[in-house]
Amino acid sequence: MHHKKQEEEAFWAKQKSRIELFYHYNYIGINSFTYTKTHKLPTGTYVIEGYVNDNPQLSFNANADPNTNFEGEGGESAELSEMVKPQYAAQTKSVSQILKEKNKSEPSK
């Protein structure tokens, strides 16, 4: 039982770091994150709700499939969507795309 709880906490922590990477990369002026709720839908999808910059008007809900990780799916308030960087207005980059770019730009060891 305890092991299952640790696995779940590790899953949520990983998703939160992916959410933060997604919003920092695709949006302007993101400084902080507040997470308000985590739950699992009947479909099996995990949802993390929260907001940015200590402003509940800048809210989001991020979806993560149990077999994959958060990639950018979910929803957000109109106020938060106005903060998307102009170059990503038509299409934001997924977390996998961002990580692939970061891996290319970092020198190999």
TrEMBL record:
Pfam families: DUF1433 (PF07252). This is DUF1433 domain-containing protein. It comes from Listeria fleischmannii.
